[in-house]
Write a structure and sequence with these properties.
Strand order of the largest sheet: 6-7-8-3-9-10
Helix content: 25-40%
Strand content: 15-25%
CATH class of one domain: Alpha Beta
CATH superfamily of one domain: P-loop containing nucleotide triphosphate hydrolases
Number of helices: 22
Distance between the termini: 32 Å
Shape: globular
Structural class: alpha/beta
CATH architecture of one domain: 3-Layer(aba) Sandwich
Length: about 550
């Protein structure tokens, strides 16, 4: 079978002064019609740069130095921009990682999909509108007529990703490049998107290059796997071989870092409760005029939970389940409508803003996006020391404490003088942890703290949290949609759906008994169910 897309010794150079001379070096790959090849690796491995090189969408100063990109036999590595414009979309299409930034916020979804057809075909407005509807139905977006008129912010994350897929498929491309299309999605939405890509690929015979760092996804859909590290291909082959009998140390390291679905043995829990949530509710009311047409959302509905001292309580659920709203209620970033939140017996909901600020040192939060939550204009050490200074510690002493905290979370104390953009994602998350720990809190609320991290960095941060819990006696509320992570780090689990807790108990009880249909659906949707769930797989990864 002749390949529809071939990379032959492709090397892409980086600007002078970069950490290394090449973004990717001597990369070779064949992609056949009707085949899904997964490219796996961490941030900086070169996997997304491979996609950008194929599309000829490289950043300024980054260029193809040598090698070929053969598309249907034509070397497009040297093709002119006019020819690439004809190929993009019609021959090779791409689904980007973050649809909210890839989609124009000022134009409707139907408009943006229709633009592809308007540029590349001779269809009239009516025919384009009809084709847009067909595409939205094809990617299984509910209420396609309404979705076509909607703007990106009016759709959910999964719906926006489906719209991106519809746009990519508009011209029936021969090759589809999917760059981390499911990374930020809930487990059930992720399963739907993977199923959709598989079905569309099988029906149309499209060749798919799927870029991911999730080995569960690889186990679910890959026909072949290519593993990249520092711009080099270190291993490739059949999924069965690469996943179960990896030959390269880097592949073994990645696989060993994937959290297993089987929970570890339970830890003894204290009888003393440090945080008690009693019948907490939060309702949002939006839109409407004089009360008419008003939309009411019960974000949190009558939630009651208990966190024992020194334990980790995991709150899991999909986007819109209410878990992040509950976290914000706990630390009083927003006020609940009803209920009590007791920290060491004191009801935080009864405190004034000034009183809450005084108590805030006892309960701190680590946010999901460490880059957005860190002020880019202030040095990392100042950010960590800020809470100490506000609470009366002299600045010089606070900065010295910041250096100690950097060491505690595994960062170089000398890095306190660097700015947030000079750190990697995992390092920024450690800075967020150091900032939260500066005031020596009793309770740490961690809102999706590892969802955007590579699997090995994720494993490091999770290990760090476990170590800090033991050393400092921390009690943790851990918000996540990743059930593999929840299985490994939590003592107790509460499953939320539409603002309510539908199931709660120890990790072994929730994962083992699965009483509620929603819990069953969440666990059944985890990609690669057979991968990473047994000790045999992990031992193979560690010793192969």
């Amino acid at each position: 079978m002749s390949a529809i897309l071939t990379l032959d010794g492709l090397t892409v150079g980086l600007p002078r002064g970069a950490d290394r001379p090449h973004a990717m070096q001597d990369v070779s790959l064949e992609l056949n019609a009707g085949e899904i090849v997964c490219v796996v690796g961490e941030s900086g491995s070169g996997k997304s740069m491979t996609a950008n090189a194929i599309m000829r969408l490289l950043p300024t100063g980054v260029a193809i130095e040598r090698g070929r990109i053969l598309f249907e036999g034509r070397d497009i590595a040297t093709a002119g921009e006019a020819e690439m414009r004809r190929i993009r979309g019609a021959g090779i299409a791409m689904i980007f990682q973050e649809p909210m930034t890839a989609l124009n916020p000022l134009r409707s979804i139907g408009d943006q999909i229709g633009e592809m057809l308007g540029i590349h075909t001779d269809l009239g407005k009516r025919a384009i509108a009809a084709r847009v509807q067909e595409l939205l139905v094809e990617v299984q977006i509910p209420e396609p007529e309404r979705a076509a008129k909607a703007y990106p912010h009016e759709l959910s994350g999964g719906q926006r990703q489906r719209a991106m897929i519809a746009m990519a498929l508009a011209l029936d491309p021969k090759v589809l490049i999917a760059d981390e299309p499911t990374t930020a999605l809930d487990v059930t939405t992720q399963a739907q998107i993977l199923k959709l890509i598989r079905e569309l690929q099988a029906r149309k015979g499209t060749a798919v290059l799927f870029i991911t760092h999730d080995f569960g996804v690889v186990a679910e859909i890959a026909d072949r796997v290519m593993v990249m590290q520092h711009g080099l291909v270190v291993e490739q082959g059949e999924p069965e071989t690469v996943l179960n009998h990896p030959s390269h140390p880097y592949t073994r390291q990645l696989i060993a870092a994937v959290p297993a679905l089987k929970p570890p043995p339970p830890r003894p829990l204290s009888d003393e409760a440090i945080l008690t949530i009693e019948n907490v509710s939060k309702t949002y009311r939006t839109g409407g005029f004089l009360g008419r047409g008003q939309r009411i959302t019960h974000a949190v509905k009558d939630v009651t939970l208990t966190l024992p001292k020194g334990a980790t309580l995991g709150i899991v659920g999909e986007s819109g389940s209410g878990k992040s709203t509950l976290a914000r209620c706990i630390i009083r970033l927003i006020d609940p409508d009803t209920g009590a939140i007791r920290l060491n017996g004191e009801d935080l909901t009864k405190l004034s803003r000034a009183e809450m600020r005084a108590r805030s040192r006892h309960i701190q939060m680590v946010f999901q996006d460490p880059f957005a939550s860190l002020n880019p204009r202030r040095k990392a050490g100042d950010l960590v020391a800020q809470g100490l200074v506000v609470n009366g510690m002299p600045r010089r002493q606070a900065l010295e404490r910041a250096r100690e905290l950097f060491g505690l979370v595994g960062l170089d104390p000398a890095a306190v003088d660097r700015y947030p953009h000079e750190f990697s994602g995992g390092q920024r998350q450690r800075i967020g942890l150091a900032r939260a720990l500066a005031l020596e809190p009793d309770v740490l609320v961690a809102d999706e703290p590892v969802s955007a991290l590579d699997v090995s960095v994720q494993a490091q941060v999770l290990k760090l949290l476990a170590d800090l819990r033991e050393r400092l006696g921390l009690s943790i509320v851990f918000i996540t949609h990743d059930l593999r992570v929840a299985a490994q780090v939590c003592d107790l689990i509460a499953v939320m759906k539409n603002g309510e807790v539908v199931e709660a108990g120890t990790v072994a009880e929730v994962f083992g008994q699965r009483r509620h249909p929603y819990t069953q659906a969440l666990l059944a949707s985890i990609p690669g169910q057979g991968f990473g769930t047994t000790e045999a797989t992990r031992e193979s990864a560690e010793v192969s």
